[in-house]
Inverse folding.
């Protein structure tokens, strides 16, 4: 992947590589069921093998859009919630985007692996930790939601190591990786029954056949 630090949008965040932008229903995590506009930013250095948005990984593959260009279709919709996701969105300075969205009164949710320093102001921060690329402790401290994806070969217990860094009221969720859900879900269910501070998260948007 090209070095993201060579791109002029990194320091200021006034233009960002947008992989896709769309209005849908949040399908997973603590905000499941809410209507939300998704801004998927290009660029990812985490690169999970089971990622369902691999097309977003290459920064160079996606056009730079200014903040007004990004917000224009959102303003033309009835959306009140905006999800900033990726790729890995924290590879970019999100402060200008968040400031502009806040000026318009939107609720802003962040979906991140937590592997880069936090930028921007959010109403809800969801961190999805990855075993091969752990999140930063200082970002975990800001999490409203810890959502660990579990594949069929994993024990959900690997995610416990991050609980010490999140706040006491952070939502703890275990979600089966879609392609191994038939084997992962029964394991998650039993784990949550034995450790009831955790909850089960499902990718309901895939069952609904929506983005």
């Amino acid at each position: 992947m090209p070095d993201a630090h060579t791109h002029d949008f990194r320091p200021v965040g006034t233009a960002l590589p947008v992989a896709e932008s769309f209005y849908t229903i949040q399908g997973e995590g603590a905000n499941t069921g809410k209507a939300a506009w998704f801004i998927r930013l290009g660029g990812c250095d985490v690169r999970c093998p089971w990622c369902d948005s691999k097309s977003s990984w290459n920064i160079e593959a996606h056009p730079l859009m200014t903040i007004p260009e990004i917000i224009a279709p959102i303003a033309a919709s009835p959306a009140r919630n905006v999800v900033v996701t990726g790729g890995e969105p924290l590879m970019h300075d999100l402060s200008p985007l968040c400031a502009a969205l806040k000026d318009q009164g939107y609720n802003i949710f962040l979906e991140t692996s937590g592997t880069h320093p936090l930028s921007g102001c959010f109403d809800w921060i969801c961190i999805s930790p990855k075993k091969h690329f752990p999140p930063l402790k200082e970002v975990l401290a800001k999490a409203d939601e810890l959502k660990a994806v579990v594949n069929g070969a994993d024990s959900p217990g690997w995610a416990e190591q991050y609980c010490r860094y999140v706040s006491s009221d952070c939502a703890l969720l275990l979600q089966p990786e879609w392609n191994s859900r038939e084997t992962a879900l029964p394991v998650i269910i039993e784990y949550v029954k034995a450790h009831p501070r955790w909850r089960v998260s499902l990718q309901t948007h895939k069952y609904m056949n929506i983005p």
